[in-house]
Design brief:
Pfam families: Oxidored_molyb (PF00174). InterPro entries: OxRdtase_Mopterin-bd_dom (IPR000572), OxRdtase_Mopterin-bd_sf (IPR036374). This is Molybdopterin-dependent oxidoreductase. The protein is mainly β. The chain has a domain of about 130 residues: Alpha-Beta Complex (Sulfite Oxidase, Chain A, domain 2). About 5% of the residues lie in helices and about 30% in strands. The protein has three helices and eleven strands. The strands form two sheets. Strands 1, 4, 5, 8, 9 and 10 form a six-stranded mixed beta sheet that branches. The chain has a five-stranded mixed beta sheet with strand order 3-2-11-6-7. It is globular and about 45 Å long.
Length: about 200
């Protein structure tokens, strides 16, 4: 885990950014790439996204079906647990409110599953009410595989590992089920403003 968390130190927090820069973070103009394994290459022709409820009911979309849904443009600051923050990132995709609108569930949590086997857990309420998107475009270009393309979650109010790359579906659950990084020691929730980087923070 330490090899993916450089632990940048000694950078001051510009006063003008104090309201946008969480504690312990530094701003960057670049877009660093950190991955735990090889980058999946998923053709849009075979890509699918599936929401599976706690009862096993499935709701699925092909790439064409997903891109035919109402699309939203959004701009967000993003914050990585490795301490970089990038301001005003521009995305295009589908709100999770749209994808979950017709899903009948009493679940309180979701586990995001990615091509390549990665998982991460989130409270379902953190994916609703305009808080999360399934995005496929970054800065007017198709999302590259290195940054999670063809599609990734975008949950900008949490540390960026919660915005699962190469996402292929959500499994809705009654109980909280820690994912890949959470079982490796990262915080179960990951609020950058509370510096929830690791278990115990």
């Amino acid at each position: 885990m330490s090899s993916l968390s450089p632990g940048f130190h000694g950078r001051g927090r510009p006063a003008s950014l104090s309201e946008r820069l969480p504690p312990g973070q530094y701003p960057t103009e670049s877009f660093p790439v950190l991955s735990a394994g090889p980058t999946p290459r998923v053709p849009t022709e075979t890509w699918t996204f599936t929401v599976t409820t706690e009862t096993g009911e499935e709701h699925g979309w092909t790439w064409d079906e997903m891109t035919a849904l109402p699309q939203e443009e959004s701009v967000h600051d993003i914050h990585c647990v490795t301490r970089w923050s990038k301001f005003d990132t521009r995305w295009r995709g589908v709100s999770l409110d749209t994808l979950l609108a017709d899903v009948d569930t009493a679940a309180e949590y979701a586990v995001a599953h990615s091509y390549g086997g990665y998982t991460t857990n989130l409270p379902l309420e953190d994916l609703l009410d305009g808080k999360a998107w399934l995005v496929h475009t970054y800065d007017d270009y198709p999302l590259s595989p290195e940054h999670g393309g063809p599609a990734r979650l975008l949950v900008p109010h949490l540390y960026f590992w919660k915005s699962a790359k190469w996402v292929r579906g959500l499994r809705l659950t009654q109980d909280d089920e820690p994912g890949f990084w959470e079982t490796a020691g990262y915080h179960n929730y990951g609020d950058p403003w509370r510096e929830q980087r690791h278990w115990g923070d």
